[in-house]
Amino acid sequence: MNAMPPPSDMRRSIFEPPAAVYPPRKPRGPALRFVLNHPNVVIGATLLVLLVAIAIFAPLLTPVDPTAIAPAKRNRPPSAEYWFGTDQVGRDLYARVLYGTRISLLVGFSVAIIASVIGLAIGLFSGFLRFADAIVMRIMDGLMSIPPILLAIAMMAFSGASVRNVIVAIAVAEVPRVARLVRGVVLTLREQPYVDAAIASGTRTPMIIWRHILPNTMAPMTVQATYICASAMIVEAILSFIGAGTPPTIPSWGNIMAEGRAIWEVKPYIVLIPAVFLSVTVLAVNLLGDGLRDILDPRGAKGH
Amino acid sequence: MLTYILRRILATIPVMVVVALIVFSLIYLDPSDPAAANAGDQATAEDIARIREAMGLNKSFGVRFGEWTWGILHGDLGRSILTKLPVSGMIAQRIEPTLSLMVLTLVLAIVVAVPMGVIAAWTRGTWIDTAIMSLAVVGFSAPVFVVGYVLIYFFALQWDLLPVQGYTPIARGFWPWLENLILPSLALGFIYIALIARITRASMLEVLSQDYIRTAHAKGVARSDILFLHALKNAAVPIVTVIGIGIALLIGGAVVTESVFAIPGLGRLTLDSILRRDYPVIQGVVLLFSFVYVLVNLVIDVIYTFLDPRIRY
To answer: What residue in B sits closest to A288 (Cα-Cα)?
Structure first.
């Protein structure tokens, strides 16, 4: 059984479907094989779909308002009525945790998209315009020299707590990493003969970017975006936990943990339940990222 | 080589200038007027104008940045808005716990993570490898304060082995100092261990596939010698690079860890300053940490040229 057609058949096989050359596909083969070969992607994607569903359908999963204060019912342990118990002012933790999914996913996805788009633009700009490259890259180096969490904390301290500011603060720290990645791809591709040929034959830069650069950046950028998403969700929780992130009026996992902190030795579940949700969410995104990296770039499967 | 080292040192200057520029510009993120805030509720428009003049807020961005940088170059990080003390002195007071925590975490992480990565590479594809790498993925997914609370819960509250929180200066004895720092270092080191273990495994796998490793096997060199003398030495450069870059994680994580474990270091100083909007202190800490980070990575780069004769720039 030949995997490749014999040389004499090559020309013909371009025009005719090489039906006889490949073994007939077994039914349900490819899908099952994908699942078996890439368990990371499947587990990660399934968990993530589930979490997105929780975020969207939170109002259907609990009729309770997550911000409703009920002093008469405060500090209840988990029970049939209050699955995760209630907090110090009587708010239902189950509802709060469900609604907290929204903030984590919103921040994670927004930061990943914003940082990718801006980083892509800066990377392309820097990779194509030699005179701007040195300056832009020094600025990126400078931004990358400030530890990301510290930069986000400092930006939040100066600009004040709001979800929008959280997204901006985390994205600013991630942009240089994407820009560097894209610039690297551009510089490598510029040396490729087919890009040279395209330039020599008078193809305009936008067309070169569209045809040659973008398709080659998409794979590493997608992988990078998943890692950015995961790290953004952790940083959001950290910011909220130390009181410099999502405003306390909005239920987010970091806020719930911050509020449970004072009584956590007595009631550790108030901290641990949102912690488990956060860790599982981040794990799902990381698994997806690892799996995508293996699929999209088998050569680059070398850690971080 | 000397020219390379000189070039490398000179190249950090623009980076530091950009860092200073970013840190200085942070004050422009605050939508409120610092002069009005300083003047209080009763102030008239003239009072505010006078205070603005006195605070130097009328000057242009360039002049203000220049004066600020000039101060930093002379060791003056400004004064705290709240305590009116020099920021540099406040930082000096708080630096010991943070430095202790970070050095201990660094040592712990390297001692744990490098062997983990080597073993994972050696047992590639077996359950040991899978277990170690799964642990590494989990390490990336658990936020530092969650790890901290879980550790406190078991080691301090349930089993009563180590103190819950606090810090003892090293001047009061090595053991009390260490005892207080074990749990914080473990919590802070978790993600760092995951990072180093992963890169160690990847780098080792690449080296282990080289011809000279096969030759060493054929000559009958002992396995442990091959792993640690031949392979690890050649796999060291990416590992050391990641250790250097990962210090950014340590710095960010230290702020949170100090808050969880009530360690009175720079992280706590930062968080207290955020609540009080004490901007010069925040700027000072961010600037210091960033410079340390840049310097550490500069030193690592320079050390390479001595350690690895193949590196020529």
So the answer is: B137
Of A142, A157, A275, the CB nearest to B274: A157
- Paired tokens of B263: 């360690």
CA distance B142 to chain A (A): 5
Question: In 3-state terms, what secondary structure has residue B86?
Answer: strand
pLDDT exceeds cutoff 60 at B95: yes
What is the pLDDT at residue B154? 85
B79 phi/psi in degrees, rounded to 5: -120, 150
* CATH architecture of the domain covering B93-307: Orthogonal Bundle (1.10)
| CB proximity B39 to A under 8 Å | no
SS (H, E, C) chain A: CCCCCCHHHHHHHHHCCCCCCCCCCCCCHHHHHHHHHCHHHHHHHHHHHHHHHHHHCHHHHCCCCCCCCCHHHCCCCCCCCCCCCECCCCCEHHHHHHHHHHHHHHHHHHHHHHHHHHHHHHHHHHHHCHHHHHHHHHHHHHHHCCCHHHHHHHHHHHHCCCHHHHHHHHHHHHHHHHHHHHHHHHHHHHCCHHHHHHHHCCCCHHHHHHHHHHHHHHHHHHHHHHHHHHHHHHHHHHHHHCCCCCCCCCCCHHHHHHHHCCCCCCCCHHHHHHHHHHHHHHHHHHHHHHHHHHHHCHHHCCCC
According to DSSP, residue B124 is labeled T
Q: How is chain B split into domains, by residue range? A: 16-73, 93-307
**How confident is the model over B228-247, as pLDDT tens digits?**
878 888 888 888 888 888 88
- The residues spanned by each domain of chain A are 40-58+81-298
**Between chains, do B19 and A142 touch, taking CB under 8 Å as contact?**
yes
Please determine, for residue B215, whether its predicted confidence score (pLDDT) is greater than 80.
yes
What is the length of chain B? 313
**Residue B103 above 80 pLDDT?**
yes
- Across the interface, of B138, B143, B286, the residue whose CB is closest to A154 is B286
The tokens for A114 are: 């914003």
In chain B, DSSP finds a helix count (H) and a strand count (E) of 14, 0
Give the tens place of pLDDT for each residue, B257-295: 998 888 888 988 888 888 887 888 888 999 999 999 999
Amino acid at A247: P
Superfamily of domain A40-58+81-298: MetI-like (1.10.3720.10)
Cβ distance of B143 and A157 shorter than 8 Å: no
Q: CA of A156, closest CA in chain B: separation in Å?
A: 9
Contact of B9 with chain A, judged by CB distance below 8 Å, is answered with no
Interchain contact, B15 vs A145, CB within 8 Å: yes
Res. A97: pLDDT tops 50: yes
Residue A4 pLDDT grade (very low, low, confident, very high; cuts 50, 70, 90): very low
Please tell me if residue B100 touches chain A, with a CB cutoff of 8 Å.
Answer: no
CB-based contact, B154 to chain A, within 8 Å: no
Contact A150 B256 (CB under 8 A): no
Q: How many CB pairs under 8 A join A and B?
A: 153
Chain A residue whose CA is closest to B28: A158
- On the question of pLDDT at A6 being above 60, the answer is no
Residues 291-310 of chain B whose Cβ lies under 8 A from any Cβ of chain A: 293-294
Q: How far is CA B40 from CA A200, B30, B43, in A?
A: 67, 17, 6
